[in-house]
Design a protein that fits this description.
Layout (H helix, E strand, L loop, with lengths): L21 H11 L8 H14 L6 H14 L3 H11 L5 H13 L3 H20 L4 E8 L2 E8 L8 E9 L6 E6 L2 H11 L7 E7 L2 E8 L5 H16 L20 H4 L6
Antiparallel strand pairs: 1-2, 2-3, 3-4, 4-5, 5-6
Helix pairs in contact: 1-2, 2-3, 3-4, 3-5, 4-5, 5-6
């Protein structure tokens, strides 16, 4: 006869997590791309928090905490999201930093949110300054700063050749106007107008919560006219920038939808 003896931890004893290996890391990463699952924010948050609880000392914890923070943000849980972002430490992912700024706002920490915004803009400008194919001009305007960025070699997909980025001098998200001929838009235009037609130039206006097409044309537009139109548009935006309405708590978490267009880059 075999006797099984159940062993229970004594009251108050701390239960140590089991040792984790790369197999545990691989299992978690496989869950994040499991085609049998819906891969909803709630699912990603659940499996990632389970990994964090199981493997709290693995070097992948910072990355997992970032993933959990993004998932919690998408699930509309700002308190939970901030806890994970704080555990992740310094974030080097621009999208994650935009998410964290939104989470800070939803938790009533506006000063930290806008300080993070300023650091993101400063890092972006520093990166552009080191690119010989990018020219940047920065000017103070009424209500904030306008950065005019001209790309000698536009990104292949976005086609952005020039961008005008406005950053409020107080609270508020940045806003951006871009001009370019994106690959997808050009393809659609040539399907209608013919393969030999000139690229269609588009002027788009990006705010964190929306996007609007301002103009499209095959004809060239004087850059001086565009510079002035962008300046006036951004000055108008600075009178009531996005993100300045004081709202905190559940249901008020609003992330920036266009981080890569708000702070555009040239990829070459």
């Amino acid at each position: 006869m075999t006797t099984f003896i159940a062993v229970y931890p004594r009251a108050g004893a701390e239960i140590q997590p089991q040792d984790c290996s790369l197999r545990d890391v691989g299992a978690w990463q496989a869950q994040l791309v499991d085609r049998e699952q819906e891969l909803s924010p709630d699912y990603i948050l659940r499996v990632t928090e389970a990994f964090l609880a199981r493997c709290p000392t693995r070097p992948e914890v910072r990355e997992a905490s970032k993933v959990a923070g993004i998932a919690a943000t998408n699930a509309g849980e700002p308190v939970r999201a901030l806890r994970h972002f704080e555990r992740a430490g310094q974030l080097y992912d621009e999208r994650a930093n935009f998410y964290k700024a939104a989470v800070l706002l939803a938790n009533g920490e506006a000063q930290r949110a806008w300080a993070l915004r300023d650091q993101l803009v400063a890092d972006w400008l520093e990166e552009l300054a080191g690119d010989p194919l990018v020219a940047v001009e920065s000017h103070a305007v009424r209500g904030g700063f306008m950065h005019t960025v001209r790309f000698a070699r536009p990104d292949h997909d976005s086609g952005i050749g020039t961008a005008w980025i406005g950053v409020p001098d107080g609270p508020g998200w940045p806003a951006t106007l871009t001009m370019g001929a994106g690959r997808q838009r050009t393809a659609f235009h040539r399907l209608r107008a013919g393969a030999q037609s000139a690229p269609m130039q588009h002027v788009d206006y990006y705010r964190c919560r929306g996007r609007r097409l301002l103009a499209e044309t095959e004809a060239s537009i004087a850059m001086s006219e565009l510079d002035e139109a962008a300046r006036l548009t951004l000055i108008g935006y600075f009178t009531a920038p996005d993100g300045t309405t004081r709202q905190t708590g559940e249901g008020t978490l609003k992330t920036c939808l266009w981080p890569s267009r708000i702070l555009p880059r040239s990829i070459h």
